[in-house]
Amino acid sequence: MRREPGFLVITGNVLLVLTALALSWTAVFYATEAIYVRLGWEPHALVVFLVNAALGFIVFGIGVMFVGRFLRPKQHRFFMELLEALRRISRGDFQVNLQTEFGRLNEKQRQRHPYAQLVESINDMAANLQAMEELRQEFISNVSHEIGSPLTSISGFARALKNDRLDREVRHRYLSIIETECIRLSKLSDNLLRLANLDSDRQPFRPSPYRLDKQLMSLILACEPQWEEKEINMSLEAEEVEVTADEGLMSQVWVNLIHNAVKFTPQGGSVSVVLTADDRHAVVRIADTGPGIPEQDQPRIFERFYKADKSRNRSAGGSGLGLSIALKIVEMHRGTISVSSKPEEGAEFTVSLPLTAEEGMAN
Ligand SMILES: Nc1ncnc2c1ncn2[C@@H]1O[C@H](COP(=O)(O)OP(=O)(O)OP(=O)(O)O)[C@@H](O)[C@H]1O
Ligand SMILES: [Mg+2]
């Protein structure tokens, strides 16, 4: 916002103009005096006064034009630099860092100077756009990679299937691999769509009161085929807890966490789900007896596409989006999600959810 000039600035400017006028009139007075002496002419006092006044103004005007000529290019250059920076940003070149004379000002002076603030805002905008552009490129390269690997595998096995001499068993194995890779691709596309919806305003957020213990119970039962197949000892310990949250979105969180626990736990292991509550939060702990997560990976597993153990993940199947979706949904509810794990001792994910959520808190 433009600041009004202070009293001192106005007084200073008025004094400057008056001094310049006085100097012009003085100069004209002595100059005309010398001319009259030279000419041996003694004009009437009124004529002297009028001539001096008029010439004084003319000299003053010429002086102002002269000084303005020196100042204008500087201002002009400044605005041209700004325009060029904005043009580069609009063309998608965000490597903009305007270095102007305002760099010499200290922090306080810069905050008071409207042009300095403008320059700083443009530099900040360019830096933010650059960071977003890098994220976008990383996202695209991750998506391409996640799509590329299953496609290579599908096309390889499809080519192999053209061989008529393959026996029935091998043919069946190849077809199963193709099917698994197709499921992986379709899950990836579902997750990408879900993330895009969560990132945009399209995702409806409708909290309503429901029983969290019942939700966990029914989701665990729905996953029974997966944990039964691996003979996993699944347990649920839950108090009666009512929360106000978006039931559909929260079920995505529990499914992602339970699927991970089952996926990473070896045959015959165990997974436990515990629900407790205090007067403000519901706390859900999902623990498994899998390989755990190395300490250096723990802060990063909630990032999009991040996988702690790439080789193990390849066989387990997954694109590294499940936890980032869970984090996003929990944050929409103003809750927290964290992990604690020691390698080879399993992992425990803890979600803390406020018991009440207000409509619209998602934004
Ligand atoms: N219970 C767990 N035990 C061991 N590692 C885990 C566990 N949960 C998550 N991880 C690690 O965190 C990474 C990220 O998990 P996330 O759920 O985001 O992705 P994913 O399961 O690999 O793929 P997706 O969920 O998209 O199918 C996993 O790849 C894995 O390395
Ligand atoms: Mg997962």
What does this structure look like?
With 363 residues, the chain is an alpha+beta fold. It has a domain of 147 residues: Histidine kinase-like ATPase, C-terminal domain (Heat Shock Protein 90, 2-Layer Sandwich), CATH 3.30.565.10. The protein has ten helices and seven strands. The strands form two sheets. It has a five-stranded mixed β-sheet with strand order 2-4-5-7-6, with helices on one face. The chain has a two-stranded antiparallel sheet with strand order 1-3. Helix 1 packs across helix 2. It starts with 6 loop residues before the first helix and ends in a 9-residue tail after the last strand. The model has no long low-confidence stretch (mean pLDDT 89). Bound molecules: adenosine-5'-triphosphate and magnesium ion. The site of adenosine-5'-triphosphate has 23 residues, from helix 8 and helix 10. It is found in: Cell membrane.
In short:
The chain crosses the membrane at residues 7-32, 44-71. By secondary structure, this protein is an alpha+beta fold. It has ten helices and seven strands.
The chain-level structural class is alpha+beta
Low-confidence stretches: none
* Proportion of beta-strand residues: 5-15%
Q: Helix and strand succession?
A: HHHHHEHHEEHEEHHEE
CA radius of gyration is: 37 Å
Fraction of residues in helix: 55-70%
Helices, by number, come to 10
Shape: elongated
- By CATH, the architecture of the domain at 208-354 is named 2-Layer Sandwich
Question: The CATH topology of the domain at 208-354 is what?
Answer: Heat Shock Protein 90
CATH class of the domain at 208-354: Alpha Beta
So, the CATH homologous superfamily of the domain at 208-354? Answer: Histidine kinase-like ATPase, C-terminal domain
Q: How would you write the strand order of the largest sheet? A: 2-4-5-7-6
Mean pLDDT figure: 89
Q: Biggest β-sheet: count, sense, barrel?
A: 5 strands, mixed
List of distinct ligands in this structure: adenosine-5'-triphosphate, magnesium ion
Number of strands: 7
Distance between the termini: 28 Å
